Amino acid sequence: MSTETAAAAAGVAAPPPAGWEEARSRVYAVGLAAALPTVGRPLADADGHTLAEPLTTRTDLPAFPTSSVDGWAVRGDGPWQVVGRVLAGQTPPPLEAAGSTVEIATGAMVPEGTTAILRIEESTRTADGRVAGTPRPAPEWRQPGEEAYAGEELLPAGTPVDPAVIGLAASCGHDTLLVRRRPRAALLVFGDELLTAGPPGAGRVRDALGPAVPAWLRRYGCQVRPADVVGPVADTLPAHVAALRAALADADLVCTTGGTMHGPVDHLHPTLETLGADYVVNTVAVRPGFPMLLARLVDGDGRVRFVAGLPGNPQSAIVALVSLVAPLLAGLQGRPMPVLPQVTLAEPVPGRGDHTHLALVRWDRVAGTAHPVRHVGSAMLRGLAGADGFAMIRPGTSGAAGDRVPLVPLPLTPGERAW
Known about the structure:
Strand order of the largest sheet: 18-15-19-23-22-20
Largest sheet: 6 strands, mixed
CATH class of the largest domain: Alpha Beta
Strand content: 25-35%
Number of helices: 8
Shape: elongated
Distance between the termini: 34 Å
Helix content: 10-25%
Radius of gyration: 30 Å
CATH superfamily of the largest domain: MoaB/Mog-like domain
């Protein structure tokens, strides 16, 4: 039974909406408790996943003394007699005799017995073919373990895998990585008034969330196929129940758009009750985006799935994404709770009474300032298209120019680490 249904049956008022920061922490905790299974992935297929165990080195890095320059590996004082050459990928014999040298390439293994490396551009040849010059006082090679020692932890579990992590793993000798499986997500679009093509008019509006929300979900690390986006779903309870039940068969997270209130065609709450869902969060004291929700369903075998109810107004829906979906997905992927950066307001931002205000801003990363944007109504997307995130104004306060406030960034590129 839903929270509100139970409250009505008991003749009491429904509980108040959750505070924004409380809601964020709550959904992260339930996501982390339901963290997705671990799988092994080849390096070439690991991008966008999350490390399920620390990344450690299999050998010292570098594994052997490695020349930093093209030149001459010498032993003792010069001039030196050339006795050979060593290229990258070879294992050279020791330099045994004082006054001997081998030509050496950048990245090649330094022969045992080498006392210095003379850069090729700082060397000359004597009349009898020997090499002369003055080696620099600092060693011109990398020592084993200079970057890391065998078994050293380089990155903790929960680190998002990106090309830099993949390259580091390869340099450590790994062929596969143990990662969290990427969340599978689906989207149900509710609303008979929605058009899926062409311009709006005659009482009908264009669906802006069906095309946009899957792209946001992918930037949070989800797998979303075209077939996972369904709608508009007919504004009837049986249609809602059938659509949500079908989406939950494969998805870890189903997002819905619209229907989060209690109007004559808002069927999400009865649908969740029919399917036996429990609310993690049911409305949040935030503007815009107040009627957002997150519900959880647990199968008999213990499998956990989530439903995120996004408001129908487009900007409010994105507020719900950054407020509830982003921390939930961080938990499901075993990533740390997203830490919000601090920014300086360039202009005043009003408060919203006892609600948190998430105000769209453009983020000047160089100056560290946040500039409010225009066209920010809950039904508008023009301001969102020019914004980098939301300045967070806490309940009972307002933001003055110069104030330091948290920023809730939008994920601007797939796999971006800053939430």
